[in-house]
Design goal:
heterodimer; A: 331 residues; 4 strands; B: 286 residues; mainly alpha; ABC transporter involved in vitamin B12 uptake, BtuC; two-stranded antiparallel sheet; 2 strands
Chain lengths: 331, 286
């Protein structure tokens, strides 16, 4: 185990160095793309806490992402001079409330029924965002201005692409680290065990419904935080942030990366964003290619890229595969 | 207020359509615990196939026969070569597969037929209007209701009066036991899945001329069909029928009385059912 930990830390340090050095060498466009990858990493990690860890397949994760995006835009537009971090925090708190309310209604059901309800609720959120013109701007969307960040010593100009990249890297990076910490806590373990054998957890005295609701609310808040960054990144919030397509995006990222490990969705966000960037240059029909890749992976690579890497490493005897998660439903 | 009978009829026409789509969905779900996200995509394929058949032959009756047959064949292929393969991975993968399939079909439709609405011309007696009890009403909507009623009746007769129906209903209850009794359950499932696809395709054919044919039509009816299943209860045909009627009328009168909130009414109904009777009107308590 000790050898494994050192290796993980080494990779971690290497990753951090890369994330800090690389943007200084690359043009603006690449920096923007990397910022997007970081934001979507958080979104995908939050989604995987539901799908991979708790075994809950949701088709409505975009409702939290979109709520966060709209909340940050509305807050920044209505309260002039509010600090950027406070706006993000407030937007996240809004999604906590939304996540709790939606979760307490939806979590009465499991499996396919839950999946169906999440899709229906996402459609409801989409309808509200489209119709509530005075709040959301309807089809026109909302513009957001990124306020500067006062860190005491100096004032950081957030409109600068590099500054915003590092701001996103630090804040979102910390949130992702917190998610990783969450999976190692007793609560995180409870979620895993609940997926494996809920009956037994109940016998042991755990209130599985409360645990599930806490997890659902937590992942909703994370998605809301990612959504807030997404709105700030584009300096614009539109109905696409809350649409089913956004759910599809996060689902594809998570699944392509692999639901069996914590890092899988991050890899998925990276691969998906660059693949999309690459394919959309070649053809307007890139969603078909994405869809085919997804279906082929569902059929032949159910563990995703990270599962593929793990099985290759296992076959060649290098590395130590630990605690693989399966996403089997409890039917 | 003299419009009320017209709106009741409008509601009935949409209810018929919803029933055609959701009955297959609910049967497949009850049997194999597979919620088919691609089901509404089959409906859309039916509508687009019909558009092409009409363009080539200008014969609506031909299209109404050919398209469901095509969808039946397509359903067999999907079940045999895609769904059955992922069955061993558990139902999360089945859901993901049908979701991915729906996504691909939608994108393909946009590619082949374009990302804009298409108008379907019938060009025969179905275009006219008729006078029933003093109400002037389009013939086509009456034709839709008639189709839904006939199909519903046939489904009832097949499911409740024939041996095949007994097997299907038993499989909805407990497919392992039926399998143990020597019935070829994979074959039964394939047939029901394909029949559901054909029904959905049929609904698409008759919906095309009325609701315009466009790439968003699948997502739209999918949500409504899901609400039908939630309200009616999983795997229940009677529930699907009643819920289709309620939602059809709710939509029709919602558009008349509170146009701004007509969308929300359906979700409010769903939320109310979830709170009061989570298993749906006709669903079994778990």
């Amino acid at each position: 185990m000790k050898g494994l930990n050192t290796r993980v830390y080494l990779w971690g340090v290497l990753l951090v160095v890369l994330l800090i050095v690389v943007p200084l060498l690359f043009p603006r466009y690449q920096i923007a793309l990397m910022t997007e990858v970081i934001i979507f990493s958080l979104f995908a990690v939050s989604y995987n806490l539901l799908l991979g860890y708790a075994g809950l397949l949701s088709f409505g994760h975009a409702m939290f992402f979109g709520t966060g995006a709209y909340a940050v835009a509305v807050i920044l537009n209505h309260f002039q001079g509010i600090p950027i971090l406070l706006a993000i925090l407030a937007a996240t708190l809004v999604t906590v409330v939304v996540g709790f309310l939606v979760g307490s209604l939806l979590l009465r059901h499991k499996g396919a029924y839950f999946a169906l309800l999440t899709l229906a609720f996402n459609a409801l959120f989409f309808a509200v965002a489209t119709k509530w013109y005075s709040m959301t701007g309807g089809d026109d969307g909302l513009s957001v201005w990124r306020p500067d960040l006062n860190i005491g010593v100096t004032i950081l100009n957030m409109t600068n692409v590099k500054v915003f990249y590092f701001f996103t890297l630090i804040i979102v990076g910390l949130v992702i680290l917190f998610c990783w910490y969450f999976t190692t806590t007793a609560m995180g373990k409870t979620i895993l065990l609940m997926r494996e054998n809920e009956e037994r957890m109940k016998f042991l005295g755990y209130n599985t419904n409360i645990s599930r609701l806490i997890l659902f609310t937590f992942t909703g808040a994370l998605a809301g935080c990612a959504g807030a960054f997404y709105a700030l990144f584009f300096q614009f919030t539109s109905i696409s942030a809350i649409s089913i397509d956004m759910t599809t995006t996060v689902l594809l990222m998570t699944f392509i990366g692999g639901t069996g490990s914590f890092g899988g969705p991050i890899l998925g966000a990276l691969v998906f964003t660059y693949l999309q960037d690459f394919l959309s240059d070649i053809t307007d029909r890139w969603p078909i290619i994405m869809g085919i890749i997804f279906v082929v992976m569902v059929l032949y690579v159910p563990g995703g890229l990270s599962g593929l890497i793990a099985s290759i490493r296992e076959r060649f005897g290098t590395g130590n595969v630990t605690g693989t998660l399966e996403t089997e439903g409890d039917d | 207020m003299s419009d009320i009978p017209v709106f009741i009829l409008h509601g009935l026409a949409y209810a018929g359509l919803l029933f055609l789509v959701s009955s297959g969905l609910t049967l497949v779900f009850g049997m194999m615990n597979v919620l088919n996200f691609a089901h509404a995509a089959f409906y859309m394929m039916g509508a687009y196939f019909s558009y092409t058949v009409l363009k080539l032959t200008d014969n609506f009756w031909l299209s109404i026969i050919i398209c469901p047959i095509l969808m039946f064949a397509f359903g067999i292929l999907v079940e045999r070569f895609l769904l059955r393969r992922v069955h061993v991975f558990g139902h999360v993968h089945e859901l993901l597969l049908t979701f991915g399939l729906a996504y691909i079909i939608t994108e393909l439709v946009k590619w082949i037929w374009g990302n804009y609405p298409l108008a379907v011309n019938l060009g025969n007696f179905l275009e006219g209007q008729v006078n029933i009890l003093g109400i002037i009403y389009p013939v086509y909507r009456i034709f839709m209701m008639f189709c839904a009623a006939v199909i519903g009746l046939i489904m009832y007769l097949v499911l409740y009066k024939t041996r095949v129906g007994i097997i299907v209903r038993a499989a909805v209850n407990d497919n392992e036991m039926v399998n143990a009794l020597g019935i070829n359950i994979p074959l039964v499932f394939m047939s029901v899945f394909a029949a559901g696809a054909a029904l959905s395709g049929f609904a698409g054919v008759i919906a095309g001329p009325l609701l315009t044919t466009y790439p968003g039509m699948a997502a739209e009816i999918l949500i409504d069909a899901f609400v039908v299943i939630v309200v009616g209860g999983f795997g229940s045909l009677g529930g699907a029928l009643l819920a289709s009627l309620i939602i059809g009328e709710l939509q029709s009168f919602g558009a008349l009385l509170i146009p701004k909130l007509s969308m929300a009414l359906i979700y409010m109904l769903m939320a109310a059912v979830l709170v009061i009777k989570p298993s749906g009107l006709f669903g079994e308590e778990q």
